[in-house]
Write a structure and sequence with these properties.
The protein is an alpha+beta fold and about 850 residues long. Among the domains are: about 130 residues, no CATH class; about 180 residues, no CATH class. The protein contains 13 helices and 42 strands. It is elongated.
Length: about 850
């Protein structure tokens, strides 16, 4: 029985094999005899209908490759684009194209192309700015060109690894996808048919405008549409589109015909994962969320309804909702939790940017148990009308941990803010001053124990507490206290135009406030940054965007070694100038009052003028606190006493507070009481010159004089010093590089006179020793050279008077300058007299109120 079964099985297998061999042989023979005829006929018919140049490397007829269909195989096909240019790019380039038809068409010579399969190809479609395109490959159908024995009766299109690019240069659209395995089925030649689209594509990019909305995303299509070629209707029976991990369902219909272009679609995305949607966002937006992980579900429902063409779009209404969303910072782990949001976008009744609107309702979230909520409305995307209401109760540590602002190095404290804003912006992309001016803003901000530090800023801002009210563009400071490093402050007043100042270039800030402080360290406040080795640099510049009026009351101010107390005064800053009015304070065991101005308008320099009154300042402390005023000749170790003076000064500084001594001009009338001059090098030199040991320590009860500074030279007229060692009358100059030119007249006591007279016989020879009639002697001495190396010689009366005359001239020049700058010396009649008359033989008559007594 088994042998019989195997015998029949062998016969059947042999029969099948013979049948297959005969089938292949028949197919080969038929293809051999019909191939040339079919190729010539089909190619000829296709060429009649084509409007472009096509090149094919090889054409084969096969009855086996796509059995049960016969297939005409085109290998290495290139079709040029349809453009008037001589140099044409490729519209189509394919490795293989199969045109499939029934085998029986070979016998009745009536060819009906049922299927087209394209393998390993690229298609480049373009619409130019003049609305012409490059893909009008088919000639308009006419009776003369039509052949009833050849027809495209397509039922199926197959795309296997086909790259398709579509560019609309006028609309700014650029789409590209790769159809890896896409099948399109339907009775395309019928007026009514059902279209099936199934398969996988890779969307390379989907650019609209300048934004790439989809980039390298796998997409699965499962579409079923009812098609009516007469009306141009495409109605979705099924419309499932999966982009990446997100699935969308499309229902509705599209009408596309020469008479009408209309769509009525509903696109829904249910339970879309938030993180997956963010991954599909354009890169320009996605980069802001790269440091965050996201969770939550998004629902979206979008209706697209209305007519459309190249000039206008249908109406779009998109409603979206996020429930229980969460954004987690990848490094800190801080999360914005329980994010709930409802919103709607529409392009409006006219489908233009002017009618676009966006509304966010019921926005709420939690940041580490602190609530954030609000709503937002934007109407008109050309000149937006914005309405915002927001409330936030924030712990600033959590905010920084969540946002990771790189300009903030540390922060702490709490902030509570509520704000309402309504305004119309002139441009969607940026705010202008006019936008803020015309807007309505109100709200409150409360700070509690806020501290922070800013990158590259040596200052520390701490203990900030305050209550602020927003009133349109102004901020009302109900109270504001805190510290900037070791400086404390209490402030109350107004900040006007502060919002435009903070966010818009070239806007001015107006401040009118009262400031009280227990301690102010000016050096700390002026620190711009801290260098690598820890040293600090100062920068002082006055912004032209500031208009400030401050009333200041401070218990203590410190600037390096300088210290002052009980500071009161008014400060006005405007147009890059700082005005100090009625400033008074205690310093150096005395008091100082005055007015002044700092002008920062020219080349970033600080041009200063001041008029000050000093009352009984401790000179020793003054020299110590001001580092001996930048020189080493006379220090706090050399000079003591109480200084009372009126000072007028003009000076020039750079922004680093480095003085230009060439521009320094000073005039002062001063009195020194209970003075001491100790170990002063020129006096020690004088002591050696006179062979006296009594000039290292000189005390005097009262010294009155004037002093002038200009061209880095200190000029002092004749001044009488009645001291414990001698009576000295001096005048002359002293430069900033310590070159001196003193004219001295000494009245020695009897004992000192004897010492000098016995020691210097040449006194008599030069005739410079005078008896004043009271038993005292007068010596005229000229001191030149430098402070460290003074040179002494006896002076003749003529030379003495010339030196005094030069001093007088210099003083009058300074008075003229100061008179122009300050108008302080209108009562000085010496400027209106003929001060010097030169006579014969180099002798001088000096007529001047300040002339020394003979």
């Amino acid at each position: 029985m088994k042998k019989k079964f195997f015998k029949y099985l062998k016969r059947i297998s042999l029969g099948i094999a013979i049948f297959i061999v005969l089938l292949f042989a028949t197919a080969f023979i038929i293809a051999y005899f019909y191939e040339d005829k079919v190729k010539d006929f089909v190619v000829n018919q296709i060429n009649k209908q084509l409007n472009t140049e096509i090149s094919v490397k090889e054409i084969n007829l096969s009855l086996i490759k796509r059995f049960p269909y016969a297939s005409l195989t085109f290998i290495d096909v290139t079709a040029k684009e349809v453009v008037p240019d001589k140099k044409k790019e490729n519209l189509l380039k394919a490795e293989t194209i199969y045109l499939q038809f029934s085998i029986f068409d070979l016998f009745d010579k009536n060819y009906r192309i049922k299927k087209v399969e394209v393998v390993n190809a690229s298609i480049n479609l373009k619409i130019f700015k003049n609305r012409t395109n490059n893909y009008q490959v088919w000639k308009p159908s006419t009776d003369s060109t039509a052949n009833k024995n050849f027809k495209f009766d397509l039922q199926k299109l197959i795309f296997d690894n086909v790259y398709v690019s579509y560019q609309d240069f006028e609309a700014g659209e650029d789409y590209a996808f790769n159809a890896n395995d896409l099948v399109v089925k339907g009775l395309f030649s019928n007026d009514d048919y059902t279209l099936h689209v199934n398969g996988d594509i890779l969307i390379k990019h989907f650019i609209s405008g300048k934004l790439n909305f989809i980039n390298n995303k796998k997409t699965k299509l499962n579409l079923v549409l009812k098609v009516n070629n007469n009306t141009g209707l495409y109605a979705f029976d099924k419309g499932d589109i999966k982009i990446g991990a997100n699935t969308f369902n499309v229902t509705g219909n599209i009408v596309y015909s020469s008479k009408q272009k209309n769509m009525s679609l509903l696109i829904k995305g249910k339970e879309i994962e938030l993180h997956s949607l963010i991954n599909e966002m354009p890169e320009i937006y996605k980069k802001y969320l790269k440091d965050y992980e996201s969770k939550g579900i998004l629902d979206i429902s979008c209706t697209i309804k209305g007519n459309y063409n190249d000039d206008f779009y249908p109406c779009i209404v998109a409603r979206f909702k996020i429930e229980n969303g969460e954004f987690i910072h990848k490094n800190s782990g801080i999360a914005l939790e329980k994010l709930n949001l409802k919103g709607e976008y529409t392009n409006g009744a006219m489908q233009t940017l002017e009618t676009n609107s966006l509304r966010l309702d019921e926005f709420s979230a939690i940041l580490k148990s602190r609530a954030i909520k609000g709503n937002l409305s934007i109407i008109n995307f050309v000149k937006p009308e914005v309405s915002l209401i927001a409330y936030a109760d924030l712990n600033l540590v959590d905010v920084q941990d969540f946002l990771k602002l790189d300009t903030i190095t540390s922060i702490a404290g709490d902030a509570n803010i509520s704000i309402s804003y309504k305004g119309k912006l002139s441009n969607f992309n940026h705010f202008t001053a006019k936008d803020f001016v015309t807007s309505t803003t109100s709200g409150k901000l409360n700070l509690k124990n806020v501290s922070f530090r800013i990158k590259n800023d040596a200052r520390e801002y701490k203990n900030l507490n305050g209550a602020f009210q927003f009133n349109n563009n102004d901020v009302i400071i109900d109270h504001f206290t805190g510290n900037v490093s070791s400086t404390d402050f209490t402030m109350k007043g107004y900040f006007r135009n502060i919002i435009p100042y903070l966010f818009i270039a070239n806007q001015k800030l107006q401040i009118d406030a009262d400031i009280n402080s227990n301690y102010i360290d000016i050096a700390e406040l002026m620190q711009e940054n801290t260098t690598v080795n820890g040293t600090s640099t100062y920068k002082f510049n006055i912004s032209d965007k500031l208009d400030i009026v401050l009333d200041i009351n401070a218990a203590k101010i410190k600037f390096n070694k300088f210290e002052a107390s009980n500071i009161k005064g008014s400060i006005r800053i405007n147009k890059r100038k700082l005005f100090a009015n009625n400033v008074s304070f205690n310093a150096m065991d005395g008091s100082i009052s005055g007015t002044g101005v700092i002008d920062n308008t020219i080349n970033g320099k600080l041009n200063t003028k001041c008029d000050a009154a000093f009352i009984k300042l401790d000179i020793n402390k003054a020299f110590y606190q001001f580092n001996s005023f930048g020189q080493t000749t006379i220090t706090d170790k050399n000079l003591k006493g109480l200084l009372t003076a009126n000072v007028q000064m003009i000076s020039l500084w750079n922004s680093n507070l480095e003085a230009d001594y060439d521009k320094l001009i000073v005039h002062s009338d001063f009195t020194i009481e209970n003075g001491e001059l100790n170990d002063y090098e020129p006096m020690q030199g004088l002591s050696k010159f006179l062979k006296l040991a009594d000039l290292n320590h000189i005390t005097f009860a009262t010294l009155k004089n004037q002093i002038d500074i200009a061209n880095q030279t200190i000029t002092f007229p004749g001044m009488e010093i009645k001291s414990s060692a001698l009576n000295l009358y001096a005048s002359g100059t002293h430069t900033f590089d310590n070159k001196i030119n003193y004219n001295l007249r000494l009245l020695l006591s009897d004992i000192l006179a004897k010492k000098a007279k016995n020691a210097k016989k040449e006194n008599e020879d030069f005739g410079v020793v005078e008896d004043d009639g009271l038993g005292k002697y007068t010596l005229y001495i000229l001191v030149t050279g430098t402070v460290d190396n003074p040179e002494f010689k006896y002076d003749t009366k003529g030379l003495k008077n010339k030196i005094i005359l030069n001093v007088i001239k210099e003083r009058q020049n300074l008075k003229t300058i100061l008179k122009e700058e300050f108008k302080w010396m209108k009562k000085d009649t010496t400027l209106n007299k003929t001060q010097i008359e030169q006579q014969e033989d180099d002798k001088f008559i000096i007529e001047w109120d300040d002339k020394p007594k003979k």
